[in-house]
TrEMBL record:
<keyword id="KW-0456">Lyase</keyword>
<dbReference type="InterPro" id="IPR015422">
    <property type="entry name" value="PyrdxlP-dep_Trfase_small"/>
</dbReference>
<keyword id="KW-0210">Decarboxylase</keyword>
<dbReference type="InterPro" id="IPR015424">
    <property type="entry name" value="PyrdxlP-dep_Trfase"/>
</dbReference>
<dbReference type="InterPro" id="IPR002129">
    <property type="entry name" value="PyrdxlP-dep_de-COase"/>
</dbReference>
<keyword id="KW-0663">Pyridoxal phosphate</keyword>
<comment type="similarity">
    <text>Belongs to the group II decarboxylase family.</text>
</comment>
<protein>
    <submittedName>
        <fullName>Amino acid decarboxylase</fullName>
    </submittedName>
</protein>
<dbReference type="GO" id="GO:0030170">
    <property type="term" value="F:pyridoxal phosphate binding"/>
</dbReference>
<dbReference type="GO" id="GO:0005737">
    <property type="term" value="C:cytoplasm"/>
</dbReference>
<dbReference type="GO" id="GO:0004058">
    <property type="term" value="F:aromatic-L-amino-acid decarboxylase activity"/>
</dbReference>
<dbReference type="GO" id="GO:0019752">
    <property type="term" value="P:carboxylic acid metabolic process"/>
</dbReference>
<feature type="modified residue" description="N6-(pyridoxal phosphate)lysine">
    <location>
        <position position="288"/>
    </location>
</feature>
<dbReference type="InterPro" id="IPR015421">
    <property type="entry name" value="PyrdxlP-dep_Trfase_major"/>
</dbReference>
<dbReference type="Pfam" id="PF00282">
    <property type="entry name" value="Pyridoxal_deC"/>
</dbReference>
Length: 458
């Protein structure tokens, strides 16, 4: 076998072009073979198909068809968020333009741990992170770090808080918060978090006030984590009230806007995030309401001096004399070392669509959620949990037991006809739809409800 071509360099584009044709053909053939939002047959059938297609993974001699075979197999066996009936999770269909930009990143392979591995990418990251931080904080010198998603952003937020306030820092969060927050507290060796019950789905300011007033120890340092767009229902905690309480009690505030942060792009919905700028740190995640391929997380930081906690020296990457001579020091912008510029796809998306283009996508999915809620409300055999806040709609077959709800969902998953999520609220199990596909039409929503009804055993 001759030496395989590289993706960049003088031969890169010509080598990639036919391979991209192969990939695009296999994406198409795999999607047609699947025929729906999810492969049929459940885990055993999918595993058997993957094993049969994979064969010997490190054969003695290479297989020139491996690209076609494996891309086809992966596509056939994928849950496709671009299918209108794949609507369970905060799992968005990526924009074509963002995915195309990501290909350039794979070809060029810049690494953001030192300027000499990523000269332009490091400048682009500076520009985009400052622009996104300014979306939250206005024209202050705020900044943002690029992360692998909401989980890493929440971890970093707690790390920065701990480095400012010390290792006895207490996390206070609602029961509606994402599980990555208490997990981050565990990871960072912080005391066990105080969990404020959220029976109405959002963090109640009176309950938070009580929790803050009754914390053990007179001078306990506290970080409150609020949520703008909860994972289960998309609800937004009362941010201005929570911010006011944090000021009164001298607590630091982190807002997890992994889901709701995308509302910033919409003139219609932006006001739902009033109070976001009061947070010391804000989690954003553009692989949710931002239509990016994974990964596209950010942590916005109001006071950039907080970032000094991440400063780190490794002589081969940011020697003092290089930094003094003007080479940007990138190591303090992440806990990772090698780091791909996920910022390119974000920059390309922001510039290609503009504020109105992104805002329109946000408005479309929020509008679809209201349409779905209206269909459910009017349906004789379905119960709606509540009007949607963002694009999440919970419902259940009227009078069904939790077992029936769970079985309905699994039946749809197993025959590959629809991907719905599940969540337990008020002691009952609900089917969850998270609408993130701006191409979904009202007919698709009606078809989804027909499928649920037809697969509910009574
Ligand atoms: C509110 C919230 N925060 C954080 C996360 C974690 O994000 P990621 O899966 O990108 O790590 C999620 C994921 O759904 C989320 O809903």
């Amino acid at each position: 076998m001759s030496t395989p071509p590289l993706a960049s360099g003088p031969e890169g584009p010509d080598a990639l072009r036919p391979l991209l044709d192969t990939v695009l053909d296999a994406l198409d053939s795999g999607r047609r073979a699947r025929g729906g939002p999810l492969p049929a047959g459940g885990p055993d059938a999918v595993a058997a198909r993957v094993r049969a297609a994979t064969g010997d993974l490190l054969p003695p001699h290479g297989d020139p068809d491996a690209l076609r075979t494996l891309v086809h197999t992966l596509t056939e066996g994928s849950a496709d968020p671009a299918h209108p009936l794949c609507a369970a999770h905060l799992h968005c269909p990526p924009l074509a333009v963002a995915t195309a930009a990501d290909l350039a990143v794979s070809a060029l392979n810049p690494s953001l741990d030192s300027w000499d591995q990523a000269p332009a990418a490091s400048e682009l990251e500076t520009l985009v992170t400052r622009a996104l931080a300014a979306e939250i904080y206005g024209p202050t010198p705020a900044d943002a770090l690029v992360t692998t998603g909401g989980t890493e952003s929440n971890q970093l937020a707690l790390l920065l808080a701990r480095e400012t306030h010390g290792a006895t820092l207490r996390l206070v969060h609602g029961a509606n918060a994402h599980h990555s927050l208490p997990r981050a507290a565990w990871l960072l060796g912080l005391p066990a978090p105080v969990v404020v019950p959220t029976p109405t789905g959002t963090l109640d300011p009176a309950a938070l006030d009580d929790a803050l007033a009754t914390l053990p120890g007179p001078r306990t340092a506290v970080v409150v984590a609020a949520t703008a767009g909860t994972t289960d229902t998309g609800r937004i905690d009362p941010l201005p009230d929570i911010a006011a309480l944090c000021r009164t009690h001298g607590a630091r505030l982190h807002i997890d806007a992994a889901y709701g942060g995308g509302l910033l792009f919409s003139d219609r919905h932006r006001s739902a995030l009033t109070g976001l700028d009061a947070a010391h740190t804000v989690t954003l995640d553009l692989h949710k309401l931002g239509w990016q391929p994974v990964a596209a997380g950010l942590l916005a930081v109001r006071d950039t001096t907080d970032l000094t906690a991440l400063r780190h020296r490794a002589d081969y990457l940011n020697a003092d004399d290089d930094t003094e001579a003007g080479l940007p020091d990138l190591l303090g912008r992440s806990l990772r070392t090698t780091r791909r510029p996920d910022i390119l796809k974000i920059a390309v998306t922001l510039k290609t669509l503009g504020r109105d283009g992104l805002g329109t996508l946000v408005d479309q999915v929020c509008h679809r959620a209201h349409e779905l809620a209206a269909l459910i409300r009017a349906h004789p055999h379905l119960e709606l949990h509540a009007p949607p806040t963002i694009s999440t709609v919970l419902f259940r077959p009227t009078g069904a037991t939790d077992t029936t709800v769970a079985e309905t969902r699994r039946r749809l998953l197993t025959d590959g006809s629809a991907v719905l999520g599940r969540t337990r609220i008020d002691g009952r199990l609900w089917l969850k739809t998270t609408l993130l596909n701006p191409h979904t039409r009202p007919d698709d929503l009606a078809a989804l409800l027909t499928l649920v009804e037809g697969n509910t055993s009574r």
